Every structure is written in C-alpha cells, then in structure tokens.
Amino acid sequence: PPYFMTCPLFGFGVGIENFFQHSSRFSDVSIFLSRQRGSALRENIQVLCIALLVALFIRTFVVQAFKIPSGSMQPTLQIGDYIFVNKFVYGIKIPFTRKTLIPIGQPRVNDIIVFQFPPNPKLDYIKRVIAISGDVVEIRDKQVFVNKKPFVDPYAHFEDPVIRPANLDHRDNFGPITVPANSLFVMGDNRDNSQDSRFWGFVRNGDVRGKAWRVYWSWDMEQPLLSLARLTSIRWARFGRAVHNDPPPPQPRPVPSPPPVTATPEPTPAPDSGTDVASGETATLPEPDSAEKTATPDTLAPASKTPAASSEPEREGKKRTRPN
To answer: Catalytic residue positions?
Structure first.
C-alpha cells in the first residue's frame, strides 16, 4: 500500500504494543478474572447437572407428579388435582422396562394406583384396586362381591339409579370371573362414570407405576388458564391432603333395640244413657228378665240378715190384738 497509509497503521500497532508492555499488572488481573469466571461457570454447570441427575433419580424411583384430568375417581380425587405418586413403595424397577430390580411390596386391596393403560401403554390411568390374583369378582345390581362376599367400599359413588342388564354392558352386572396371576382388578370410585377392568380387563403388576400419595395442588381446570376465575378456583383446603388408600375402619355392630312396648287400651264402658259414641244415636238396650233382676250372686252382694222394719201403725195393731 502507499506510504501515507502504512505509517499510521504502524504507529497504532507500536502504541498498542507499548501499552501492553508497560501494563503487565493489568494483564495479570484480567487473566485472574478470566480464570475465576471460567471456574465459576464450570461449578454452576456441575451443580446444574447434579441437580438434574438427582431430580431424574427421584422421578424415576421415588416420587412422580401427576394430574387428574377426568372425573372417574370422584369424589376421592377431583378434576384438576395434582398429586404425588409414591413409586418406591412397590420396589425399584429398571427404567423403560417392566422388571423389578428390588421388590419391596405388592399392591393391596383399596390401594389407589397409577398404571400404564393396557390397551395403550403410552397413557397413564389411576384407579382403585378391588381384587388381586386368585380372587373371584362378581357384580350384581351395582353391588361388588369378592370371593362371594359383599365388598365393603365406602368410597364408591353412584350417580345413575338405573341398573343396566348384563346383556347391555358390564357396568352394573359382571362376572363372576377369577383374577389371573400377577394381575389386578381395578375400578374407579365414580362407578357409573369410569372405564376400568369391567370393560378392558386386568392390570398386570408390572404395569403399575406407583401408589397415589398426596395432593399438592388443586384448581378448576375447566376455567381459562390466564383468567381470574382460574385463580379464584384454587382449592386451598385440598393442599397436602392424603389420598384414601387405607381400608375403611370396621363398622361397629348395631346393638339390637328392645321390642317396643305397646299399651293395650282398656275397653270403654257404654254410656248410661245408651248413646252410641261412634254414631251419636240412642241405642235401645234390652230389658233384663225378672229373674235376672232379683238373682244376685252371693259373692257380689251378700244378703242382709236384719229383717226389714215394719211401720208404726202395724206394730200398734199387733199390740191391741194380742191376747192377755
């Protein structure tokens, strides 16, 4: 390039070189700060990675959050409830498989479980366990029988009083059928509005994800998301509420009450005037015979021993006619 262009560039380069040579301490500070910034960034990345791994471990093996989008478990679980599911209670499973690495327990009757929907494993369902392997289940007119005994279920809710026959569907009349091995028979608490084992079959133990534990959030999902109605629909009373998984307490046997004492009314004597109380008419009473009038039992009216006194004129006449 021409000379008049190279001289200014050369002078600027020399000036920059002299500045760095005479300010070595500033370069040391900048290097130190850059090193500190690099170490802090690395530490933040490490903390973030550890937190993600811990969260993934907890979600996979310990606790997972779910939301309730339908009313099949009402009134136990409401639409819009967000719940924690205990995944550790039934054992530690190998991720993405149905194999249990460390078995801890098995689902029991009355447990509310989250499981993979048998017709579509990509979906998760939540229902209550009614029977386990080997039990015989039968439903007659909405009443559930397990092993030929009525199933005590205070959580069941019915909305439709109509009883459907078995040839129409299996909602109100079903079975009897035996639960196969390593399987569960589940039903929703809202019996008249629940798609469960009555319609699509049994749940395999390997498909169970966990046991419902507690409600941590609840609001009305039918309201618009970004609206005042959604905010005012928050159900504060449901926060932290435990999900009913335990069997109902035994009901006390009713004490038989003594039979009621009924008082026998005494017969009302007929009025002396001979008036019929019901009709208000005068009844003609039959006259008793003369023998019945004079004959009186001794036990009721004893006869008098003293003769009747005569009148004074008769006594005076007797005195006059008495012979001397």
So the answer is: 72, 127
